[in-house]
Specification:
Number of strands: 6
Helix content: 40-55%
Structural class: alpha+beta
Distance between the termini: 94 Å
Shape: elongated
Radius of gyration: 25 Å
Length: 160
Amino acid sequence: MRCLVEVRARNLIIWSSAFIVAFLLSLILFLVRSDRTDRYVLFFPSEITREWIGEAREVYHTRDMEESVIALLKELALGPIGLRLEPTVPKGTGVRSVILREKTVFIDFTAHIAVNQPASRLTFAEMLAGIKKSVLYNFPSLEEVVIYIEGSSTEQYVEA
């Protein structure tokens, strides 16, 4: 009888240990997996009211904030999914670089953003405001967004 109790106790320890190891391994794999996503809200102008309407998107998770901003901007360049929304930036707009310094993000777009206006009635200044709105909403730790085009300030484009 005593031998049977010892065998059961040993089996219980073995199975419990195996369960704990499997649980810990699953937890570690969950925490380091690369297919996690982040939810961003992108803002697009309404075709009717011209108000900024938020549209949620799932984007693959990145550990670096600069890469996260790039992912958000690429999604913004894809345009809206919803009906009655206009694009904020022209399709095909490229991001040359994103640099984060303290609470300011510097974004440098390709010239495509200035040359090819989006298929909407947005002015260039409204387009820049929409980009800033999307970035600042999704990254509340940022306080300022500075936008460049091919390394030049956007002031010359806004005045023109």
